[in-house]
Design a protein that fits this description.
alpha+beta, 35% helix, six-stranded mixed sheet
């Protein structure tokens, strides 16, 4: 994703401008306190900095095939939020290589596949961070996923384009879903989400959610996490 595409998407989703996409160390993945625009945001960022640092470090160490954007983990206010509602969200860049099977899917199915594979697990990990399930000033959780659009990834003479899905869920609905008290269709109905094709907002396509164990079972060949720090 180019810097300016990312800026446009972030301005629509979060009302902010992101930093250029690249793999960054855990400290740089966490939204810095001076970037928060309200006391509520800064208070959450201060209180949970250690948890966010631990989260970003685990992703950096244990899931090396995805990158968290610089300042991509934090307590953001999505554009739809009333007042100063804050959602703990993470923005992931996914190194999705060109695959014929994935390319054959339509946008609706691709967004469902990426959310089922990466989004659900990221939301689960965010909700598991100590203190956040009962934090009274937290409205919910969110995940933004960016991946190369099939047919534009590395082809000579073709401008690279990314697809980006942003999903935000209120805390009660997410916790009920994780406890299997809410069905996948019910989660999709309650979630706020939108899809981007490059800079163009496609909007809310039908979203399916299914079980996908990839994030908990896949092992990158020839990669070993640092010794003494298991995943």
């Amino acid at each position: 994703m180019t810097r300016w595409t990312a800026v446009a998407i972030a301005a629509v989703l979060l009302g902010t401008s992101p930093f250029p996409a690249s793999a960054v160390p855990p400290d740089e993945a966490v939204l810095s306190l001076e970037k928060y625009s309200t006391p509520k945001g800064r208070s959450l960022g201060t209180a949970y900095h250690a948890q966010l640092r631990q989260f970003s470090e685990q992703i950096y160490r244990c899931v090396p095939w995805v990158d968290i954007r610089k300042h991509g983990v934090g307590f953001n206010k999505p554009r739809f939020a009333a007042a100063d509602d804050r959602y703990l969200s993470v923005w992931l860049e996914i190194d999705q290589h060109e695959e014929a099977q994935f390319a054959a899917l339509g946008q609706e199915r691709r967004q469902s596949a990426m959310f089922s594979r990466y989004g659900v697990e990221m939301l689960r990990r965010l909700a598991a961070l100590p203190g956040l399930r009962t934090e009274p000033t937290l409205e919910g959780f969110g995940v933004i996923l960016t991946w190369p659009k099939p047919g534009t990834n590395g082809k000579p003479g073709v401008q690279p384009v990314n697809e980006t899905l942003a999903v935000f869920v209120d805390r009660a609905s997410l916790l009920d879903f994780l406890a299997r008290k809410l069905t996948p269709p019910e989660l999709a109905a309650r979630a706020k989400f939108t899809l981007f094709d490059g800079q163009q907002e496609v909007g809310r396509l039908p979203l399916e959610v299914w079980e996908d164990s990839f994030m908990t079972t896949f092992k990158l060949p020839d990669y070993q996490p640092p010794s003494g720090r298991p995943c």
